[in-house]
């Protein structure tokens, strides 16, 4: 995940969450990320024991799916203000954030 979605994750957290809940949602997202990091560290030796080097194909597949998600689902934020992004997302999602 460090190659594809991780840098995007840290950047977009600060840009896409609405201002009035940004702190809470960023803290929640980071906590979830560390829980999943812990699960990977816990389960990786078990997966290696059962599947051997094929375990790495799972991680490769997750990276490919992450790349597809980033390329197709996330909005371009370059050159946009935080307020402009919030208005864009409200319009795209069809509801107020």
Q: What would you say this structure looks like, in words?
A:
It is built from four helices and no strands. By secondary structure, it is mostly helical. It is elongated and about 50 Å long. The two termini are 29 Å apart. Keywords: Membrane, Transmembrane, Transmembrane helix, Transport. InterPro entries: MFS_dom, MFS_sugar_transport-like, MFS_trans_sf, Myo-inositol_Transporter. The chain crosses the membrane at residues 21-48, 54-74.
Helix share, percent: over 70%
Mean of all residue-level pLDDT scores: 84
- So what's the overall shape? elongated
Integer tally of domains: 1
Q: Give me the CATH superfamily.
A: MFS general substrate transporter like domains
Strand content: under 5%
Distance between the termini: 29 Å
Number of helices: 4
Q: How large, in whole angstroms, is the Cα Rg?
A: 17 Å
Largest sheet: none
* Low-confidence regions: none
Note the run of SSEs as H and E. Answer: HHHH
In total, the number of strands is 0
State the name of the first-level CATH class. Answer: Mainly Alpha
Keywords: Membrane, Transmembrane, Transmembrane helix, Transport
Organism: Duganella phyllosphaerae
GO molecular function: transmembrane transporter activity
Pfam families: Sugar_tr (PF00083)
């Amino acid at each position: 995940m460090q190659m594809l979605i991780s840098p995007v994750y840290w950047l977009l957290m600060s840009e896409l969450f609405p201002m009035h809940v940004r702190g809470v949602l960023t803290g929640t997202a980071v906590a979830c990320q560390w829980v999943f990091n812990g699960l990977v560290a816990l389960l990786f030796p078990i997966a290696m024991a059962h599947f051997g080097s094929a375990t790495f194909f799972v991680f490769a597949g997750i990276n490919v799916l992450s790349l597809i998600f980033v390329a197709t689902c996330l909005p371009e934020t370059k050159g946009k203000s935080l307020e402009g992004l919030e208005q864009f997302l409200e319009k795209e999602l069809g509801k107020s954030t």
